[in-house]
Amino acid sequence: MVAVAAMTGKTERFIERMAGVFGPPNGELGRVLAEHLAPFPPEVLTAIAEHFILTRKWKTWPMPVEVLGAAKDEAAKRAAETNAGSFRKRKDDVWAEFRCVRADALIESGIGTQAAEQGWLDALWNFCRCHERLPDRHEEQALRRTVLARDTQAEHSVHAVIDDANWTPKAAGVRAALLGLHEQMQQVAEARARRVAAWADRRVD
Fold first, then answer.
1. Does residue 107 lie in a domain region?
2. Domain boundary residue among 69, 92, 115?
3. Spatial separation of the C-alpha atoms in residues 134 and 137, rounded to whole Å
4. Are the C-beta atoms of residues 53 and 17 closer than 8 Å to each other?
5. C-alpha–C-alpha distance, residues 88 and 191, integer Å
């Protein structure tokens, strides 16, 4: 076996496996391969060894340019697969930055102006973020109904419980918490109004 200072465990395993089929590498071949294959990860070297063993028609070692080319191709293929997987993961993330940027751009439209004036801009933005498009007519109507029903129901439910005359002294803490919740709801509504006003100001500028 070739004794080479540049030989690493992974390159040594590659050469040993290839030598089992093609015989020991002649002359400087082992050193050259060890030097140029060192940057590649073990899985790439394993894959190209398998490739040459299964597909090479001659019982001679492939030229260094063939081995290095195969290693580069295998590494590129694996990198592409990894990048594709990362893209699919980002695509599946409904809070991915590109989705938020896309939603910001989509609401800069006529429907965005209507949503801001009517109090459902947040719902429109969330729809655009999730679907990467504006809603069609039926989806827009559904958004309006959902927001109106949500806000109305939440407001009525809190008021109904707070105004209930059957509170016991022990439940005073619960009533106080509900009063706090109602105050928070008002603060959220005010904050929404401020965001809409700021959005409208940016459009004017």
1. yes
2. 92
3. 10
4. yes
5. 35
**CA angle (9, 19, 53) in 5-degree steps:** 100
Sign of CA dihedral 106, 189, 162, 171: positive
The encoded tokens of residue 56 equal: 């090479």
Q: Domain range holding 88?
A: 9-92
Domain count, the chain: 2
CA distance 40 to 174: 65
Say yes or no: 103 and 200 in one domain.
yes
Q: What is the pLDDT along the chain (205 residues), one digit of tens a residue?
A: 444 445 668 899 999 999 999 999 988 898 999 999 999 999 999 999 999 999 998 889 999 999 999 999 988 888 877 766 655 556 667 778 888 888 888 888 788 888 888 878 888 888 988 888 999 999 999 988 888 776 555 554 555 555 554 545 555 555 566 566 556 656 656 665 666 666 556 555 5
